[in-house]
Amino acid sequence: MNYREFLFETYRYDHAENALVLCYRFADGPRFEERLSFDFPPLRLSADAELVLDRVFRLIFLMAGVSYYKAYVSP
């Protein structure tokens, strides 16, 4: 399979399910998501702590996406 490009679509923290959802797709190809579930109770965080946590989630999103990209490297 050869896809034109790999797209890092979005990531989000699902508070209801206490999970990080990472969404990726290949242009003109499959779309998929990875869900990372946390087994500890969600905490109320300050605005600064939420910002830091979002940065951590973004790094996880980018690092995990590289593995998917390598599965079908675009030309």
Describe the structure.
It is a single chain. The protein contains one helix and three strands. The relative contact order is 0.26. It has one helix spanning 47-71; strands at 6-14, 19-26, 31-37. Strands 1-2-3 form a three-stranded antiparallel β-sheet, with helices on one face. It is of the alpha+beta class and 75 residues long. The N and C termini lie close together (11 Å).
- The coarse overall form would be elongated
Number of strands: 3
Task: Name the beta content range.
Answer: 25-35%
Helix content estimate: 25-40%
Which spans of ≥5 residues are poorly predicted at pLDDT below 50? none
Distance between the termini: 11 Å
> What is the spatial order of strands in the main beta sheet?
1-2-3
Largest sheet: 3 strands, antiparallel
* Category from helices, strands and their pairing: alpha+beta
Radius of gyration: 14 Å
Q: Helix segment count?
A: 1
Provide the residue-averaged pLDDT: 89
Order of helices and strands: EEEH
Task: Describe the structure concisely for a colleague.
The chain has one helix at residues 47-71, and strands spanning 6-14, 19-26, 31-37.
Could you name the key traits of this structure?
3 strands, alpha+beta
